[in-house]
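S1.2 Input.
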Amino acid sequence: MDEYKYTTINGYEIELVIEGDPLYPDERFSHGSVNKGDFHASLQRFMEGYPLEDGCGEDLVVSDGTFKRIERWALANGY
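S1.3 Output.
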């Protein structure tokens, strides 16, 4: 069964999708995104420390405190 989770932390919108395969119920994988206004990143790239991008060459670097809060939320919710 697929799960969709969403939260907002310090103005950043975080989406997390956890998917499973009915044929292999013990196997699950997750993916998601982090967005703020026109800036976005996949959850994987964000967790690797990459900044959010707007598609026009501008980056938005997230503060360490906000990064840690988003990271904790993602890991606690199945990422």
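S1.4 Remarks. The helical segments are 43-47, 64-76.
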